[in-house]
Amino acid sequence: MTPRTSPNVTEQGSLVTVRHPSGSSCEIDKLGATVTSWRVQDRERLFVSRKAVRDGTKPIRGGIPLVFPQFGQGPLMPGQHGFARKLYWTYTGVARDDPTEVLVAFELKDSDATRSSGWAHAFKLTYVVTLGADTLGTHLAVTNTDKTPFKFTPLLHTYFATPDITEVRVHDLKSLNYTDKVREAQAYYEDRDAVTFDAEVDRIYHGAPNIIHLDVDPRTTILIKKNNLRDVVVWNPWADKAQEMADFADEEYKSMFCVEAGTVHEAVSLQPSQTWEAGQQLIIK
Ligand SMILES: O=P(O)(O)OC[C@H]1O[C@@H](O)[C@H](O)[C@@H](O)[C@@H]1O
Q1: 101 noted as active-site residue
Q2: pTM for this structure?
Q3: What ipTM describes this predicted complex?
């Protein structure tokens, strides 16, 4: 099928750039189908490290890497955060372009690389990125094309940009249980109205509400509206961990934070021929 094109979408090398008539734009790298830029009102909303490696030798440090089939270092396969963020996806073209939204689609199927990864199932992933005037949607469909069921723990690893990490507030997580990876992966209860950052944070909030408000600075709120993703991971490496990461500059922990919608506490199970769908919409308020 010939990819559908639009004057609002350009493809150059591994980058697909989408422009909306309102002036907003986004950029997706076929490496991982990683959204690497989202600009609204002339302001970049996503964080990408200035030391990010963009040649395919490692996942892109920033934007929205897509974690599949495994979040973290789980039991499903060896390594961290699965293979989807490390592989080049196929750009399948413009799915829709109308005055309100522009949609572009990407696909990843099992290959020698995925079958030899330790998670050897046959699958098809379809990822649709939707740009509106002040919204960005990322929607994933997973189809089991195999003869047996499989499990996965998918996640949208969104890196948000902030002018000052100490002013960030992540709301709507109060009264949830969370696993704290910084404290021996023990379970805790969130009693604060907002999660803030003044040290390393690495938590999995279980069963989070579908709307999360983020104050990225005292005047700017972004809403995450998630769909069919149960949990929310909140992460900032802070100073010491930042120094350990080769593709992240030492001071960059001050200008980013991750709020990651996923189903990671318990895996999704998918039967042969079935499709599972989920996603998020980011909205500038
Ligand atoms: O360095 P990576 O593999 O991109 O992972 C970054 C972080 O991703 C988060 O989702 C994890 O909860 C953290 O534990 C991890 O450090």
Answers
A1: no
A2: 0.98
A3: 0.99
